[in-house]
Write a structure and sequence with these properties.
By secondary structure, the chain is an alpha/beta fold. It has helices at 7-10, 44-53, 76-87, 98-111, 134-145, and strands spanning 13-17, 27-31, 63-67, 93-95, 122-126, 151-156, 159-165. It folds into 2 domains: 7-22 and 115-165, no CATH class; 27-91, no CATH class. Helices cover 31% and strands 21% of the residues. β6 (151-156) and β7 form a beta hairpin. α4 runs parallel beside α5 (134-145).
Length: 169
Amino acid sequence: MTEIVNRVKESGLISLDLASYKPSMEIMSIDIADILWQRLVLKEKDFRAWVKDHDWKQYTGKAVFVHCSEDAIVPTWAFMLICSKLHEETENYVIGSQLDLEKELIRKNIQSDDISKYQDARIIIKGCSDISAPEFAMVELLRFLQPVTKSVMYGEPCSTVPVFKRMRS
């Protein structure tokens, strides 16, 4: 009887799943419109009082996106003031949408991976994942891997699409 051999395992290919870079921390938002007078105008005295009295501890260890859901003119310093307070509780915050925040968290997760384990490796990036902005995640992963790998492919081991192959020198 012939032994079944896992040729993919023996090939030395490293398969990476985008899902392993998916953000896992709780995401919260701060909508500046909720702080504005009639959701349209920022009154500095009221805004500064809100910043002083707001419970910033609720954001400890969480990821936060700061945005304004109304078409209001909000001075830049208002965003800066909020982020100054957020910085005391978390390093994971952005001005923008939830998707902007998720992209930043994906980037951080990729950058925190140990690049040395991919030195001269042949990598397959699995395409099926429920990660936000998969195209963004794939490109960020490629940007991270390309300087050290022999090759990067997309797909599954049984059917890959070559993306990058280092030229022999």
